[in-house]
Design a protein that fits this description.
By secondary structure, the protein is mainly α. The chain is built from 4 helices and 2 strands.
C-alpha cells in the first residue's frame, strides 16, 4: 500500500487497517475508577504504557499523566475536591459570622 503525502512524496506501508473518521465525536469522560484500572494495567509485569494505552484507545501521554497523578496521590476514588470545597465554604462562613459579630 502506498500513501501520497502532502508534499507529493510517497511512502510504503505494511498497514492492513486504515481508520477513517467521518464524524466529530465528543471527548470521552473517564471515571476515576477506569483511569486507576488502566494505570494498574500499565504497571503489570511485561506490560508497557504504550500497549496499555493502545488497549484503552488513549494516547500514551494521557496514560502517563494518569499514572503520574496516581503516584502523586492526585488520582483517587474519594471525592477530595468536594471535601476541600465544603471546608472552604465553612471557613468562609465562620469568617463572615465573626465579622458580623464584630470580632
Amino acid at each position: 500500500m502506498f500513501f501520497i503525502l502532502s508534499n507529493g512524496s510517497t511512502t510504503k506501508s505494511n498497514a492492513s487497517n486504515l481508520e477513517v473518521v467521518t464524524s466529530v465525536q465528543r471527548r470521552r469522560r473517564w471515571a476515576v475508577e477506569e483511569k486507576i484500572s488502566w494505570v494498574h494495567r500499565s504497571m503489570e509485569p511485561e506490560m508497557t504504557i504504550s500497549i496499555a494505552a493502545r488497549e484503552a484507545v488513549v494516547a500514551p501521554s494521557q496514560l502517563f499523566t494518569w499514572k503520574r497523578l496516581y503516584l502523586e496521590g492526585g488520582l483517587s476514588t474519594s471525592d477530595h475536591l468536594s471535601d476541600v470545597y465544603l471546608l472552604t465554604c465553612a471557613v468562609s462562613c465562620l469568617y463572615r459570622l465573626e465579622l458580623f459579630n464584630g470580632h
